[in-house]
Amino acid sequence: MKKIFISLAVIIACLAAGSCGNKKNPMEENLTTVLIETSKGNIKVALYDETPLHRNNFIKLCSNGTYDGVLFHRVIGDFMIQTGDPDSKNAKPHELLGGEDPDCPTIPAEFRFPQYFHKRGALAAARQADSVNAKKESSGTQWYIVTGKKYKPEQLREYEINMDLDKKMKLIEKGKKERMKEIFQLRKEGKKEEVQNIYEQIEDNAQMEVAKHPFIRFPQNIIDTYVNVGGCPFLDSQYTVFGEVLEGMDVVDAIQYVKTDPAKRPLEDIKIIKVTVNKPSNK
């Protein structure tokens, strides 16, 4: 009887303190969360305050029913699951999806690296390619959840080097275009040495710029995350991360490995049934 009395006392004390195993994730208390009910199960995400343009747009689309009934139209194992195409609601089997809603303008990029990055479970905005989207603006409706894979530290370092090289080459091409008329005139006059000097100046300037402002450097905490948890480091500073999964990564994993057609659309439709926005309890 004594043991039972003590147990009841503990339970009452816990309930009074509000901490009997039902303590909320701190993110739920301080950030807007969204419950995404899918045909595979539920996923709960938190939206970052540091990316207000994306947060507010996502809340608006969730609240007005834009995402109710859309499909996960692009799914790649060990990479990500993507959704948000309004036209997917009534899509026929094998219909190519991924278009944009003309009534939803693009969103300016809100890169917050290294605070937020493409770790496993990151919520991020899709976008069009750099060739038609130099400012890396996000899609007005489409988003994805990162699954990714684990990386070795040397792979991350190799990526840093490759991206620096890519940045240097782009700077060199930009420098050549800016001095194209001057180079053309010198070539016309047969001044090969002066042309070569200009090329060397352009390359030296590009090298100094990259040394001063490298494309990306992974802090140790991010390296540890990509090594031990996984993600997609090659998307950092390229696509806007505006939230993360709090619950339901098992559902995300179930979606990422389904069978797909050549366009990576699941052969069996996976649908978002309903989304519910929940305001932070502390605000």
* H/E element order: HHEEHEEEEHHHHEHE
Strand segment tally: 8
The figure for the number of domains is: 2
Q: Tally the helices.
A: 8
Strand order of the largest sheet: 3-4-6-5-7-2-1-8
State the share of residues found in helices, binned by percent. Answer: 25-40%
Question: What would CATH call the class of the largest domain?
Answer: Mainly Beta
**Tell me, what's the shape?**
elongated
Task: Just name the CATH architecture of the largest domain.
Answer: Beta Barrel
Rg value: 25 Å
Largest sheet: 8 strands, antiparallel
User: Helix/strand/pairing class, anyone?
Assistant: alpha+beta
- Could you tell me how far the N terminus lies from the C terminus, measured between alpha carbons in angstroms? 44 Å
Strand proportion, as a percent range, falls in: 15-25%
Full CATH superfamily name of the largest domain:
Cyclophilin-like
Give the CATH topology of the largest domain. Cyclophilin
Detail the poorly predicted runs: 1-21
How confident is the prediction overall: mean pLDDT?
Answer: 91
Short descriptors:
single chain, 283 residues, alpha+beta, Cyclophilin, 2 domains, eight-stranded antiparallel sheet, elongated
Describe this structure in words.
The chain has 283 residues and is of the alpha+beta class. It has two domains: 26-149 and 230-278, Cyclophilin-like (Cyclophilin, Beta Barrel), CATH 2.40.100; 154-212. Helices cover 37% and strands 16% of the residues. It is built from eight helices and eight strands; from the N terminus they run H-H-E-E-H-E-E-E-E-H-H-H-H-E-H-E. It has helices at residues 2-17, 26-30, 52-63, 153-178, 180-188, 192-212, 220-228, 249-256, and strands at 33-38, 41-47, 72-76, 80-83, 122-125, 143-146, 241-247, 272-278. Strands 3-4-6-5-7-2-1-8 form an eight-stranded antiparallel sheet. Helix 4 packs across helix 6. The two termini are 44 Å apart.
